[in-house]
Write a structure and sequence with these properties.
The complex is a heterodimer of chains A (387) and B (177). Chain A is an all-alpha fold. Chain A has 16 helices and no strands. Chain B is an alpha+beta fold and 177 residues long. Chain B folds into two domains: 75 residues, Alpha-Beta Plaits (2-Layer Sandwich); 66 residues, no CATH class. In chain B, 46% of the residues lie in helices and 18% in strands. Classes of the chains: A mainly alpha (387), B alpha+beta (177).
Chain lengths: 387, 177
């Protein structure tokens, strides 16, 4: 199949709706800049980090499957592959905040005098250099993984699989290091005196469960609207449901690990993080965060039939995406607004725009290649997969 | 009264699965299937009901969690209250890790125990193999005579047509319950 025609054309109205949603996001940002610029920049960081995380989940999922030799997910690998197309859009947003609004970070605005290692790590040139380095690394790895996978469509050579396996093993380590540092740089340093060594893993767990939710939603949509109809069956959904359930619980585990140690030790410089987020309305959101990301998904997805049902999976995936928004909101906004909560119209509007942008980037990536890796040696195993 | 059974031995799983499908279509009574490894999808082919083992797991896990939570509240807040860092006596976050561990312990042990009980396994039990190679590379399908209409020749033919390498007849004394 050298000349593959991609036959799926999404309905034209979809493109219009996506553009409109993007417009809402831009409008929300502009209106935010005029009314509450601090919040608008923080919100831009929030949605850009969300886009980066979505793109990274795509390449990480692909890498994970290669690294552990998993065949079951090959049939729909093009979906996570295409998700990594969201990376550049997120990178632009993150870099825009770091370049044009560094005052968001107290250490950059000169509000706080840093000493020792903090002063070495948190200085602007090094900070910017690191951000560029993370993006360069992520974009390189995801581009190489996708390129090898697509070259295999043409010649079916085993060599491409082997190359991707080696690449993926390296990527697992590189990803862990860079994503941990990136979340520390861009989010944790909003409160530079506060330190949590588990912060990177916490962000990874949130990123991966939200990314899985996106994979499930995209797959169910593409299965219904044709391109993936013949490639995805209930067994694949069941396994994705298991992963969603498992990583939702993993998120809770990491959340609690971070919370309990700080709660137990009750040291001023540490507990300030939670005190800020447990006052007033934020306290309600704090509990809603746990309920949305773990409480409801855990109870609902516990049984086997639930994990196999498209309706249940769709609603839980959507719930987790809302939960991820709330999680990011609680991480990024309170230090910027000093705990004052107003109706988050700006944060919601911009997230709507980011989601539309994500779908647009995904579709652009998805349409660049056959919807399934036609000559991957593991494709047959994936198509006849049984739980 | 003794019962007449036919044992078909297969050397690959697809032949056995085909024979099971055909036997179920002809409403033959399948007593048991023996395989050297877990064959995916076999439970669906056999039309087995879902195992109730997961219910045991949930119930035991819940019981463990409740018991441990009660015990921690009783020790830390009722029987001998200890002030830890000025925190309230009933400090739930501190109880969570141990409650979780005990829940997992109860659930795990109860599930394994229930499995052993249901399948009548115990340490030191003598192996009782229906065919010596069934733990190695052979698949066994055991079909039992149900009524006078049971045609041995036809069932034998059915097994062989799906690639049975060996078909034997057995008479089994009905075990008093």
């Amino acid at each position: 199949m050298n000349h593959f025609e991609f036959t799926y054309h999404p309905p034209r109205s979809l493109g219009r709706w996506l553009l409109a949603a993007c417009g809402v996001g831009v409008l929300a940002w502009v209106a935010g800049l005029l009314t509450a610029p601090d919040r608008a920049w923080a919100s831009l960081m929030m949605v850009s980090f969300w886009l980066v995380s979505m793109g990274l989940t795509g390449s990480l999922f692909v890498g994970l499957m290669y690294a552990c030799g998993a065949g079951w997910a090959v049939a729909f690998r093009r979906v996570p592959e295409a998700m990594s197309a969201a990376l550049p859009a997120g990178a632009i947003g993150v870099l825009a905040v770091l370049l044009f609004h560094p005052e968001m970070y107290p250490w950059a605005a000169g509000h706080e005098e840093l000493k020792g290692f903090h002063a070495f790590w948190l200085n602007r040139p090094f900070f910017l250099f690191r951000a560029v380095a993370y993006f360069a690394i992520w974009l390189t790895f995801s581009a190489l993984l996708n390129r090898n996978s697509r070259r295999q469509d043409e010649d079916g050579a085993m060599l491409h699989s082997r190359r991707n396996i080696n690449l993926s093993v390296v990527y697992m380590f590189v990803f862990a290091l860079t994503y941990w540092l990136a979340s520390v740089d861009w989010i944790m340093s909003l409160e530079p005196e506060w330190v949590s060594t588990i912060f990177g893993i916490y962000n990874f767990s949130g990123m991966f469960v939200a990314g899985l939710a996106a994979i499930i939603l995209l797959l169910l949509w593409l299965k219904q609207s044709a391109p993936m109809r013949d490639f995805v069956n209930q067994e694949h959904l069941h396994d994705l449901g298991k992963l969603l359930f498992a990583f939702s619980t993993f998120w809770m585990y990491i959340f609690f690990s971070q919370y309990m140690l700080i709660w137990y030790a009750n040291m001023t410089e540490e507990s300030v993080y939670y005190i800020l987020r447990q006052q007033g309305v934020l306290g309600i959101l704090f509990i809603a965060n746990v309920v949305l990301n773990w409480g409801v998904p855990f109870l609902v997805l516990l049984s086997i039939p639930a994990k196999r049902s498209p309706v249940v999976l769709t609603s839980m995936a959507a719930l987790i995406l809302v939960g991820r928004w709330l999680d990011l909101y609680l991480m990024i906004l309170p230090p910027v607004t000093h705990g004052k909560v107003t109706l988050p119209w700006m944060e919601m509007g911009m997230m709507l725009g980011a989601m539309a942008l994500f779908v647009m980037a995904f579709l652009a990536g998805f349409r660049r290649a056959p919807q399934t890796p036609v000559r991957d040696p593991l494709l047959a195993q994936s198509l006849s997969y049984h739980n | 009264m003794s019962q007449f059974q036919l044992l078909g031995i297969f050397d690959d799983e697809s032949g056995m699965v085909g024979a099971i499908k055909a036997a179920r279509q002809q409403r033959l009574r399948i007593v048991e299937v023996y395989t050297p490894y877990a064959v995916h999808g076999l439970d669906r082919v056999l039309g087995l009901k879902r195992s109730r083992l997961s219910l045991v797991c949930v119930a035991a896990g819940g019981l463990g969690a409740v018991l441990k939570m009660w015990f921690e509240i009783w020790t830390a807040a009722i029987d001998w209250p200890v002030d830890v860092g000025g925190k309230p006596w009933n400090s739930l976050p501190a109880f969570v890790p141990i409650t979780f561990e005990v829940m997992v312990l109860f659930a795990g042990l109860a599930t394994v125990g229930a499995f052993f009980m249901v399948s009548r396994l115990r340490p030191g039990k003598k192996p009782d193999l229906i065919h010596p190679r069934v733990t190695n590379d052979r698949f066994a399908l055991l079909i039992q005579e149900t009524d006078a209409a049971f045609d041995v020749g036809r069932v034998r033919g059915l097994l062989q047509s799906h690639g049975a390498v060996e078909v034997s007849e057995r008479l089994v004394e009905e075990v008093p319950a």
